[in-house]
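For the sake of transparency, this paper describes our internal protein records without simplification. The remainder of this section carries one protein's record, kept here as part of the documentation:
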Amino acid sequence: MATNATPEQVKGLFRRAFIIGRRFRIVHVVHGRGREHEVIEVSTFRAYLDNEAAEQVSGNEKTSKRELADKSHVVDASGRVLRDNVWGPQDQDAARRDFTINAMYYDPHTQVVVDYHGGIQDAKKRVLRMIGHPETRYREDPVRIIRVVRFAAKLGFDIEPKTREPIREMSELLSNVPQSRLFDEMIKLLQTGHARASIEQLRKQGLDRGVFPILDAVFDEARRHPGREQFVQLALADTDRRVSEGKPVAPSFLLACLLWHDVLAHWQRNQEQGEPPFPALQSATDAVFDARIGDISGRGKLATDMREIWTMQPRFDRRTGNGPFTLAEQPRFRAGFDFLRLRGQSGEISPELATWWEDFSLADEGERRRMIEAARQQGGQGGPRRVPRSKAAAAPVAADLNDNEGDDEGDEAPSSAGEGEAPARKRRRRRRKPAGAAQASAAE
């Protein structure tokens, strides 16, 4: 929503309204409560100003914080706008927007679409056209390069030649954009419901290398490993399907899919170096997250969700005792199961394991216990067994597992994929009474 009211005026009209942003100050108005609430973004009409007249700083948002304080119109040395909070009339606000199709205003009172730059005509022609001189507009905000790719993929529009020509050359300016903002733009690309089309559009515009380090690493490895390529493509297709069906999508799930094979490689390496399976998996998840995601806003929640999805996978192999009941009650169970299903579809694991868990999640308690009993009789484990250290140790391990069937194994440390069976439980030894106590007992 756009208005001539200032952010302070908007905030004063609503009880639950919050002014956010420094570069562009806008207001988030919260409507409704609980899960059904809606956040309405309200922006104030801005004036179209010549950037040559703006104040200039030599650094960026982080290095020039003091210089940026209390300033309303500032650019850096490359012409990128760091502050744009000078209010103006509607026609100037339209002129400073990026694309013609993004500069139309609907007046709900008159029910008229106000179109200053031919956006309706371009929409009919299915064309993306930059307002003003494209190079200048890309310099003002390099993220417009990513936006034109996203809109082209999402809407199926062609990029007008003058708008398209500078893209590859101007893409170097993206290196000056804060990593958190680039990360947010990458997530938008992947969650528009047209993830595969967006990635194809990146390649088409020569932006498939050097813009998003995460995607560079993922697709470089995927090209070398067909199994990984299939898993990534299935994850992207599944995300597109969920968006088209109006279902929620979480960035943590898709990122967990994209980086899963990195986790597997680190996990295997850690175990080869002598780490126990579960600590090795935890170390692997930490290493991959820090290396690929890095320091971005909101990383705490993102990291927690991704780790839960990853560390849940070995637990799906264990289908005996009370473990399946415990696992099915986990808050992130559905995300973990959807991840397991994709692993089955890609051939990484048997699809039967995913089918079993789907049936288990939908069954009543009696049916669940019958399923667990049937799984127990079949061995109960989804993956290959751990190779015993010696033949002498193998027999008591098997006997001990049989003696303890039906115990709650859900909270035990999970074994690695490819090392399905958990370590054997230690036998309980009866405590012998001291000799004196034994003699006294006998005397009585």
Notes: The first strand starts at residue 2 and ends at 3. The two ends are 91 Å apart (CA to CA). The chain is about 50% helix and 10% strand. The domain at 264-403 is CATH 1.10.3090.10 (cca-adding enzyme, domain 2).
